[in-house]
Specification:
alpha+beta, five-stranded antiparallel β-sheet
């Protein structure tokens, strides 16, 4: 564990007393806090917060007054040490405060989650032209400081971003370049900014320069320095990317489970045509890739990444031909790796091992466009030129493989350099630029189990940068001391130059010795290691491990690292093979020849020995020269955990990175001087109690501070102009003495408190003794009372026993007497029975006789009695109605009255039905008789006609015969055939008689028909009268039912509906129904007063039939009509009224199964699904609300105010219930067509309640869900529109205005500035007005409008208030005035919109209103906590008040926040609340619930006269919907 030895050695140990809070080491949490319980010599006993006791001599004091949210600049910490830094970072990380300053060094902790709200454009505006440290720590602040320093001083600046893999360096670099491009504002080629072009090059560089390592799946294996060039006006004019130390050895050697560079795997996953073109296979088949078992990365698709890389190469300006050449070279490197060599015929010679190696050799030569034999010769042969001759020798297999790997590394290295140069050419550079801002994204300090040459170079780089960093930190310390005018000449500065000399000193450094070993071909790792051990055996930074002969250890600034030197020599060699150069210079591929042509130029420029180490040292020297010529700014990126998850803060991991990043080294430098720096006011506030007389005197703050320090005997401190500078340990000494003073005061308080407790205990004991005495006296009295009760009980027992003996004797005598009396009375009773039987027989005879006489009278009064009974029953019903009104609270009485009325309606109904049937039968019988009589009359007339014709013929024949006879005999002749004449005459008379009788019968039939018509008319009048009476009775019953449902509570309704049918009820329901039908003259089938079993009508038990084809067509027409926008009729939504009227007419609410509800819901869903038009959403919101209101007032199951789960109701047990159910179910099937129109008409006007079935209740639930969904869509759409505007409304634009200026034009400028400030608020008002107009145009209920605006204002309140709490720059006086002005605009809008549509929306802004009121109020230090929490901000919690109070700063008048006493009280109350509550978040949550119920909607809406709404033309033209026009016409 790293501790500050320098601080402990050079300064006195911190003063620790019993009770002090300290930090001690912990094996699990690195550091843990606790309280000192005992001090024994150098060791202390500490009881940690986890309950365990630790004995240690390594400890640091803990600052118990550190803010609960940490400090944004760790130089403000009272104790600047490792556990204090760790606690501060962890505390801020929990609050998502990922940035923290250490002076002007920014520490960025990777949150592993998106925090877009801190990187938006408006956030860039906030940090523009703002001094470093004025606002909350941010990467934009570092970028702005670098840019302002470049503009103001004309000097180049650099920003060094460092950290280990996965710490967020790349993202931080992107944010920096975004901000610099935002400040520069210069467009690049084709509309792309320079920053965009640089970012677009990242995918290409990552593909060829990144690989998977142990700690990161996308680790950069090269350093990158981005130079952003600016012109004299501060606008971006160009950029360049410089790369350092590409890890070339990774091309040929990788360890498991790492991977080679991404481009190799991307090429192996290329499309099939590219695979075939480059003769590739899977990665397992290539030697350079199969050295590790890792081929795939989780969540990464190499095929898609290959295509993305090709697109990125197009973007950065790499042509298709160049891309083909690049990937041809990459494929050739893979094939080169598969070329193996075997021993040749000659000694120390080699040849291509087999056919497979030969195939890869030919493929590599083909891809590189060179001769295969020449390539083979270049790999296995070397030409040595001597003065006498040229000697060609063959390499052995090992040297040939080394030659192959060298060629592969050389090709890849120069390929990567070519890509970087191409990107720089595409971006464009400005040679006339005088100022740059460089962003260095370089690898951090690395220490693994196996550390090779790459880690050695990386750590060498970090040592160089750390020296630069230390010098910068020391320079800042000097500037701080100079600024405060204190003496700093004796402060010692510890440098790491000895480590750098160990590595790079020439001659004698490690790199020099390595280069020397590389010059000898036969050098081995053991020789190099031995040379190191001999040279540096006495060096304090160099050590030799005991177990390995080739390993060596260097003590870096971040800790000791052990390196394995096995491959140092091979990886360091960078010589150029002449055969390789000659081969590829002659290549037919211009791209490959160009790569090696530059190689040739480099080799011809210098003939000296070259190595990777020496070249890297030169690059590093060049980088340091660039950095030394700039003003540096540092960003240290920290990876909080290795699992890459948000919210996890691993202490050991963070401490390791703080050491590697040099943060702790910077703290060590600060500790070597004056690590504790307190402003005079803060010092007096904290330590003023050490010298109360100083505070009472009228001393200057500086003098008062010095008096306190002198009084306590402190030495070696410094007093600056504004701060007190304390040495390490002095702060702890002051805190110890302060704790001593506070402890003495606490003991006084404890003494007084214990006295009070003892007095209270004495009084309690005395009162307890009095109570005990009273109890004992009571016990004695109870014992005496018990004895008296026993004596009284004995006397009572004796009395009862004597009474029992006497009573037993009396009962025996009484029983004997009763037996005698029973016998005598039986004899008398038998005689009386015989007499009564005779009398009863006589009475029966008399009764029959009298009944016979009364029957005739009874038949006459039968009809009159029925009418009288109906009238009397109506009178009784009205009387009982009045009685039921008086007993309205008793549900049972109402149900009894209902049962009586049901019986009466039952009798009238069935009599009416019987009379109707009898009338129908009578009409059919009379019609049949009349038809028979008419047919008989017609037959008789025909017979009479035939008879008359025969008589006329016979008379004519007789007359003709007489005439002939008279003509023959002149004399009169006596007719002899008289008998025939007589018979004919008799026949004529008989026919005349028959005709007259038939005529008489016809007249009688006509009379009977007339009497039947009269009787029918009388029956019709009676039927109509009975119908009117039934209507009256049903109206009365309906009113009774409504009153019953209004009186019943919701719980009672739920219980009654869920009860199962009892056995008695089921028996009554199944019992056959009996009807008394009187005998009538027309029907003799019924006996007098006899009961006859009649079956229920068939339609009553028959299930309701499904909709026929005609109904399906009607439904289709309805759905087609409502799917269109049919508008409104006098403010009433036509679609809702149309649906309601059709469902009422079709009786859809009362059927067990129907599909119309689902189809309506589907129509509404299709209309609002994925709908972005507010007008359409408001239209359906209005229709849904109106339809729900009608259902709420109509469906009986919703009488309690909420939609309950549908339940099957029990079978009605009374006749009235069954008949009324059949009426409601199907009036036509019950035989009462006249009731259909009445029920429909009344239902539309009166909204009478209906016994709804399950589909109707389900439809109501679904419609409610859609109403809530549409409401939520409108609300979320408004939030989406307002949310971007709120980001500009939370903070005013910061403008620099001179303290003095011309008075002329000031009012006009103020007016213009005011208009600019409120422009964003006016945009919100415009948005609110637009939505209000849309909802009012669609007649959305005012309740819903007020609720949606209430939630929108609540959203505004949450967003503004949370931003106020999360951003310190918002908690200023001027910003409070700005937000207050915007809130005034919203208040004016609420007043103009009226309370009907806004409701209590203004009250939803109570949090932000009170917070802003607190910001702009004057004289805050004079306000007490009670005044603040009860009068100024009663709504805000103590955590929120504490947060605002600590973040407040007055940028206008320079006033202070609340007093320290109030802050201390708030801090104490906040800690109590945090301990006692589960969630202690001070942020507000946005409420996205549904803020209304169906009852509220139903009560707020006026009655809708649905009958007065005209249907659309498409419906009006259809004859099946004529019922919609009845009431309106």
């Amino acid at each position: 564990m790293f501790v500050f030895n320098a601080m402990q050695c050079s300064q006195a140990a911190p003063v620790i007393t019993v009770g002090s809070h300290v930090w001690v080491e912990d094996p699990h949490l690195a550091w843990i806090d606790g309280q000192v319980t005992r001090i024994h010599g150098d060791n202390i006993h500490v009881k940690t917060n986890q309950g365990k006791t630790v004995v240690t001599n390594v400890y640091f004091p803990k600052d118990t007054e550190v803010p609960p949210g940490g400090v944004d600049d760790m130089t403000k910490l009272s104790y600047l040490h490792e556990p204090g830094v760790l606690q501060n970072l962890g505390t801020r990380y929990e609050l998502n405060e990922i940035y923290t300053y250490t002076g002007n060094i920014l520490i960025a902790v990777n949150p592993f989650q998106r925090l877009p709200h801190i990187y938006e454009t408006d956030m860039m505006e906030q940090y523009k032209r703002v001094a470093l440290g004025e606002l909350s720590p941010h990467v934009f602040a570092i970028g702005d400081a670098a840019y302002r320093a470049m503009i103001n001083e004309g000097k180049s600046n650099s920003i060094l971003v460092s950290g280990e893999s996965g710490a967020g360096k790349t993202e931080t670099t992107k944010m920096l370049m975004r901000y610099l491009a935002f400040l520069g504002g210069r467009s690049g080629v084709e509309g792309r900014t320079v920053e965009q072009q640089v970012l677009e090059s990242n995918p290409v560089l990552e593909a060829f320069g990144n690989a998977k390592t142990l700690r990161n799946n996308n680790s950069s294996r090269f350093g990158k320095f981005v130079e952003i060039q600016f012109d004299k006006n501060g606008r971006i004019s160009g950029a360049a990317i410089r790369t350092y130390l590409l890890e070339r050895s990774r091309v040929c050697q990788i360890s498991d489970p790492e991977r080679n560079y991404h481009c190799f795997y991307l090429l192996c996953a290329a499309p099939p045509e590219d695979i075939e073109k480059y003769q590739l296979k899977n990665p397992q088949s290539f030697h350079y890739l199969n050295q590790s078992n890792c081929y795939k990365l989780d969540g990464i698709d190499d095929a898609s990444e290959y295509l993305e890389t090709r697109k990125a190469m197009d973007v950065v300006g790499i042509s298709n031909d160049e891309q083909e050449a690049i990937f041809r070279v990459v494929a050739a490197i893979l094939h080169l790796g598969n070329i193996n060599f075997g021993k040749g015929e000659a000694i120390d010679s080699s040849v291509v091992k087999d056919e497979e190696s030969g195939r890869h050799l030919n493929l590599a030569a083909e891809l590189l466009m060179c001769d295969a034999q020449s390539l083979e010769d270049a790999l296995i042969r070397r030409v040595m030129v001597t003065p006498d001759e040229i000697i060609t020798r063959t390499l052995n297999p090992d040297d040939a493989i080394a030659s192959r790997d060298t060629l592969a590394k050389t090709i890849y290295s120069h390929l990567f350099d070519w890509i970087v140069n191409k990107i720089n050419t595409s971006i464009g550079q400005d040679p006339r630029s005088k100022s740059i801002i460089g962003v260095l994204d370089i690898y951090g300090f690395e220490s693994f189990k196996c550390n090779s040459f790459e880690q050695f170079c990386i750590n060498f780089t970090n040592e160089k940068l750390q020296q630069h960093f230390n010098q910068h930190v020391f320079k800042m310390e000097q500037e701080e001391y100079t600024k405060e005018e204190i003496d700093w000449s004796y402060i010692e500065f510890i440098d790491n130059q000895d480590v750098l000399d160990l590595i790079e000193k020439k001659p004698g450094g490690i790199i020099s010795l390595l280069d020397e070993a590389c010059m000898f071909p036969k050098s081995k790792s053991q020789d190099f290691s031995q040379k190191l051990f001999q040279t540096f055996k006495n060096h304090k930074r160099f050590a030799k491990p005991k177990l390995s002969p080739t390993d060596f250890t260097i003590s870096h600034y971040a800790g000791e690292v052990t390196y394995q030197s096995d491959h140092f020599i091979d990886k360091n060699r960078d010589y150029i093979v002449a055969e390789h150069q000659a081969l590829f210079t002659a290549s037919n591929c211009s791209f490959v020849a160009g790569l090696f042509h530059s190689l040739h130029e480099d080799s011809s420029r210098s003939s000296k020995f070259s190595s990777i180490g020496s070249r890297f040292k030169q690059q590093l020297h060049s980088l340091m020269e660039s950095l030394n010529g700039t003003e540096p700014h540092y960003i240290r990126c920290i990876k909080p955990n290795n699992v890459l998850k948000p919210g996890v803060f691993e202490n050991f991991n963070v401490i390791h990175q703080l050491r590697c990043g040099g943060v702790l080294e910077a703290i060590r430098i600060s500790c070597a001087g004056y690590p504790t720096r307190l402003a005079f006011y803060n010092f007096l506030d904290r330590f003023g109690l050490l010298a109360p007389e100083v505070l009472e005197g009228n001393y200057d703050d500086k003098v008062a501070c010095q008096m306190i320090l002198d009084k306590k005997g402190l030495r070696d401190y410094q007093v600056g102009k504004t701060k007190i500078f304390l040495r390490a340990g002095q702060m702890a000494e002051l805190d110890a003495r302060r704790s001593e003073v506070l402890g003495n005061a606490a003991r006084v308080i404890q003494r007084q408190f214990r006295t009070c407790i003892a007095r209270k205990n004495f009084r309690s004991i005395r009162n307890a003794a009095i109570v005990l005495q009273s109890f004992l006296r009571g016990e004695i009295a109870r014992e005496v009372h018990k004895k008296l009760r026993i004596e009284a009980a004995a006397l009572r027992f004796q009395k009862n026993f004597r009474r029992y003996i006497d009573r037993k004797s009396f009962v025996t005598t009484k029983s004997s007497t009763i037996v005698l009396q029973t016998g005598l009375r039986a004899m008398i009773a038998r005689s009386e029975f015989r007499l009564r039987r005779q009398t009863n027989a006589a009475i029966v005879l008399q009764a029959h006789w009298r009944g016979r006489q009364a029957y005739s009278y009874y038949t006459r009064l039968q009809k009159a009695a029925i009418v009288t009974q109906c009238a009397w029953r109506c009178r009784l019903a009205r009387r009982e109605l009045r009685m039921l009104k008086m007993a309205a609270r008793e549900t049972g009485a109402l149900k009894d009255a209902k049962d009586k009325l049901e019986k009466r309606v039952e009798e009238l109904t069935w009599r009416l039905q019987l009379e109707k049937r009898l009338r129908t039968d009578l009409e059919e019988t009379k019609g049949q008789e009349v038809a028979k009589l008419q047919e008989t009359l017609h037959t008789m007339r025909l017979q009479l006609k035939e008879s008359n014709e025969k008589v006329v013929k016979e008379q004519d024949a007789a007359r003709i015969a007489i005439e002939e006879a008279s003509s023959v005999n002149k004399e009169p002749v006596v007719v002899e055939d008289t008998e025939k004449i007589d018979s004919l005459s008799n026949e004529v008379d008989r026919l005349k008689g028959l005709l007259s009788s038939e005529t008489q019968k016809a007249d009688e039939a006509k009379q009977a028909y007339c009497s039947t018509l009269v009787q029918n008319e009388e029956l019709s009048k009676k039927l109509e009268e009975a119908g009117r009476k039934i209507d009256q009775l049903q109206d009365s019953v309906q009113r009774f039912q409504e009153k019953v449902f209004n009186l019943e509570s919701e719980n009672k309704v739920l219980r009654q509906q869920t009860l199962t049918i009892s056995p008695t009820t089921r028996a009554l329901a199944l019992r056959p129904k009996t009807i008394i039908i009187q005998r009538t003259p027309e029907k003799d089938a019924f006996s007098n007063g006899e009961t006859t079993q009649l079956q229920e009508p068939e339609t009553e038990d028959r299930p309701q039939k499904s909709l026929n084809q005609k109904q399906q067509e009607n439904q289709e027409l309805l759905l087609k009509s409502i799917s269109e926008d049919i508008g409104f009729s006098e403010g009433k939504p036509v679609a809702a009224c149309l649906i309601y009227k059709c469902l009422i007419h079709w009786r859809s609410f009362e059927v067990e199964r129907t599909s119309i509800f689902n189809r309506i819901i589907e129509t509404i869903a299709s209309a609002v699904e994925m709908q972005e038009n507010s007008d359409v959403l408001c239209y359906w919101l209005s229709n849904s609300a109106t339809l729900l209101m009608l259902l709420q007032r109509t469906l009986k199951a919703s009488a309690t105010g909420s939609i309950t789960t549908p339940r099957r109701r029990g079978m009605p047990t009374s006749l009235f219930g069954r008949v009324s159910q059949s009426f409601r179910g199907s009036p036509q099937s019950a035989g009462f067509p006249f009731m259909n129109g009445r029920v429909i008409g009344g239902g539309l006007d009166e909204l009478r309640q209906i016994e709804a079935k399950y589909p109707a209740l389900l439809f109501k639930q679904q419609l409610t869900a859609f109403l809530e969904k549409i409401y939520g869509m409108i609300r979320d759409k408004m939030k989406k529109e307002i949310s971007p505007l709120l980001a500009s409304c939370i903070q005013a634009l910061r403008t620099k205005t001179p303290r003095s200026g011309l008075v002329k034009g000031r009012s006009q400028n103020n007016f213009v500035a005011q208009q600019v400030l409120i422009a964003h608020w006016q945009s919100i008002v415009t948005c609110l007005n637009g939505h209000l107009r849309t909802m009012r145009a669609n007649y959305v209920p005012s309740l819903l409008i007020s609720k949606v605006f209430g939630q929108i204002f609540s959203f505004i309140n949450v967003q503004l208030f949370n931003s106020l709490l999360l951003r310190r720059e918002c908690c200023s006086f001027s910003n409070g005035e700005y937000v207050k002005t915007g809130l005034a605009e919203l208040e004016k809008w609420c007043h103009d919109a009226t309370e009907e549509f806004v409701g209590s929306a203004w009250d939803e802004l109570k949090h932000i209103r009170q917070a802003v009121g607190f910001l702009v109020i004057h004289q805050k230090p004079k306000k007490s906590l009670k005044e603040i929490s009860t009068e100024l901000c009663p709504v805000l919690s103590i955590q929120q008040l504490y947060r605002i109070s600590t973040m407040y700063w007055d940028d206008k008048y320079g006033t202070q926040s609340v007093s320290q006493e109030v802050l201390a009280s708030m801090r104490h109350m906040t800690s109590d609340v945090t301990k006692n509550t589960i969630s202690s978040s001070f942020l507000l949550d946005d409420d996205s619930s549904i803020p209304f119920s169906l009852d509220e909607i139903s009560k707020s809406m006026q009655n809708v006269e649905v009958a007065e709404v005209d249907p659309p033309p498409l419906i009006r033209q259809n004859s099946n919907f004529m019922f919609l026009l009845e009431r309106s016409n």
